[in-house]
Structures are given as C-alpha cells and as structure tokens.
C-alpha cells in the first residue's frame, strides 16, 4: 500500500475517453521499455531498481559518516548544483521547521548550500559567516568538473584548511563523485577525503537515493532507512503487473501526455505548503531536463498557494489557456491549529470558530480546483496522507518513474541533457579556458 493517490475528477472532462485509452496503452509500452531497459539512455537506468537494491551496508556507511559530521560540526555545507543538490534539499526542507534558521535543528547539523549559483555576495557572506563556525563540507559532483561547485569548493576548502590545517580536513570533508574520473575524484584521493561513489548508471536528477541525497539527509538528522523503505514500497507498487489505468505512474503520465497533445504546453505544480517548495524545484528539474529536448516537452512551472493565488492566480484563472495544474495535497497536519470564538466577532471570523486551519486549507483547495477547472485549466490531484521520510521516498520515486515513462511516450531520451552543455562551453570560452579558443573567436564574431 502506498500513501499516494491520484485523482482526475477535475481533468477528466478535458480529455476524450478514446484519447486517454490510447495514451494509457502507450504508457504501458513506455513502461515496458523502461523496465526491460531497451530504450534510449538505457545506460542510465540504475535508479529504477535502486530502492530494492541498496544494501544495509551502504546505508550504514552513510549513517556513520553523518554521525561523524554531527560529532565534529554545527553546520554542513552541501556543495552541488542541479541533481547534485536538489534531491537532498527537497527532502530536508520538506521535513524541517520553517524557522530552522532561528532555532537550529537539534537532531542533526544545520545544512547550508553553496555552489548552486555564482553569486558573489552570497558566497562572500557564507565565507564570512563560517569564519567562526564549526563546519564540514559535503562536495557533490558526478562529473567532478562542474564550474559552480568547483569554485565554491575551492573557496570553502581554503577556509577550512586555514582554520583546521591539512590534517583537520580529513574529518570535515566528504566528497561524493564518480568512482574513477573527474578532478574532484583526483583531488579527493590526493587529500585522502572520505569519498562516496555515484553509480555510473544513475544520472544527477535521478540520484536522491544514492549518497548524493542520502548523506546530507542523514546529516540533517532524518531517517534514510525510512526514505528508502518508502521508495521501495513505491517501486514494488509501480512494477506490479496491473493494467495501466491501475498504475499511478501510467495514469499520471497518460494525462500529461494527452493534455500536451491537446495544446496544454505548461504544467504548473501547485502546493499549499511552503516547505514543499524545493520538492517542486526538484520536480521542475526532473521533468524539464528530462523532457525538454528536440523541440518538445511540457514546460514545468510551480506556484505556492494560497500565497500565489493573490498574484499568479489571476493568470491561472484567466490568462492564456495552455496550462494544466498538478496539485499536491497533504491530507494531514503535524500540528493542528484551531480557530477560537471571539466574543464580539469584530473580525467577522466566528463562522470559522472550532475549525482547524487544515479544514480551511482543504476548502481553499477545493474552491480553487473548481474555479480553475471552470476557467478551463485541467487540474490533476496528487494526495499524500502526510509528510515524513517514508512518504517523501514514495513521492520522489513516483515522480522519477513517471518521468521515465513520460519521456519515452514523448519520444525523447529522458536521461541525457545535451542542451546544458552549450552555456558551459560558451562560459569556458569567454573565461579563457584552454581548448576553447576557437569557440571564443566564434562568440566574439557573433557579438560584432
Ligand atoms: O541531472 C543532472 O544530470 C544535472 O542536473 C547535474 O546533476 C548537474 O548539472 C550537476 O552535475 P555534476 O553532478 O556533474 O556536477
């Protein structure tokens, strides 16, 4: 049994039954391609069986490193970009207090992030903040050569070295990278850092169940065993031999693909909980980088309701009709807040007295679903029964599996990212990196 359900009550009328059936049978074929590893990018399908194949020894090793980080440090700086940090951040933020910066986690270390952009002020402030703090680093890069994390690592490593000397680095620097290649692997071997390996057959955005995600999550004090167990439950459920209409991933992928076919080119992920904002960031990367190629692909966007109902709500209700929504609903709250009676009812809210804030949210969700679907925005619903490690493991694995099916239905390779290279090469050329001289000439000619 999983804790996730899919509901199409506000999308059904937009998709003719025969089209849905056609898409469901395409989804079953796409799923077979995924499971038999016979499609494009099949050298990157290690993530499909990952939940059931992770060994207790691998998890134990990650937990031991996390304990050592917790023992030595107050802060852990996770250095990585894209798939090398978003999975961990999605889980950590979904489970952390929104006021963590005011009341640091008592369970684990407080996680800070670096190397996910090139902003000078951010990195300067981070270095200044860490000057007198006790911290460790987990540097994560599969290629080991990505510029943003490499720059942040150089800056932070030199601060650590100044504070603790070369010897002190051993307990404080953990690297997660390719088993053999890349500058990070070479440097880690030279310094003797504890190094975790990203399997060859798992790409960045599908890697939250490798040490890429697991080490920061464990260091932050969350249960990686429960996370993996959740993913395992979902893996078993999605691989079961059932009709595509009874398979959650096939249903979601079929609706997405049918709506795209009907001209809905943008999918807006909606959450009513601010702590899911990085789950949505992770989801955007997963689908955007997997599907957006060859002139095709649904554009993944996200909004935070009810906040954005007072801004983007206007567009969603009434703007160009090329959008569909996928609404994540969390059916329970960890802490109930009740609205009480006010004798003079001066704020006019006594009609809500006795209700929980969660009840108010549920009606806001329903009212918005009715309004947006009436405004010709098909709305798909994903309900989870709560938020914990196990449910997040289910949810993220479900999205990965759907993305694989969806990409194959679209006719693209969901496991490469050729488009990401173009900006990198131009940046290298403009910065004067060796080997990019010809490209630099071309760019400069282009600018004339
Ligand atoms: O999903 C992906 O493949 C990308 O987002 C990468 O994770 C990202 O570009 C970082 O790459 P690397 O881990 O090689 O530094």
From TrEMBL:
Biological processes per GO annotation: gluconeogenesis; glucose 6-phosphate metabolic process; glycolytic process
Listed GO cellular component terms? cytosol
Q: Which reaction does it catalyse?
A: alpha-D-glucose 6-phosphate = beta-D-fructose 6-phosphate
Q: Which Enzyme Commission numbers does its entry carry?
A: 5.3.1.9
Instruction: Extract the Pfam families matched here.
Output: PGI
Alphabetized InterPro entries for the sequence: G6P_Isomerase (IPR001672), Phosphoglucose_isomerase_CS (IPR018189), SIS_dom_sf (IPR046348), SIS_PGI_1 (IPR035476), SIS_PGI_2 (IPR035482)
Could you tell me which pathway this protein works in?
Carbohydrate biosynthesis; gluconeogenesis; Carbohydrate degradation; glycolysis; D-glyceraldehyde 3-phosphate and glycerone phosphate from D-glucose: step 2/4
Going by the UniProt record, its keywords in alphabetical order are: Cytoplasm, Gluconeogenesis, Glycolysis, Isomerase
Q: Where in the cell is it found?
A: Cytoplasm
**UniProt GO MF annotations:** carbohydrate derivative binding; glucose-6-phosphate isomerase activity; monosaccharide binding
Per the record, the major location class is cytoplasm
**Residues the record marks as active site:** 289, 424
**Family designation:** Belongs to the GPI family.
Job description of the protein: Catalyzes the reversible isomerization of glucose-6-phosphate to fructose-6-phosphate.
UniProt-recorded name of the protein: Glucose-6-phosphate isomerase
Q: Which organism is it from?
A: Leptospira ognonensis
- Taxonomic placement: Bacteria, Pseudomonadati, Spirochaetota, Spirochaetia, Leptospirales
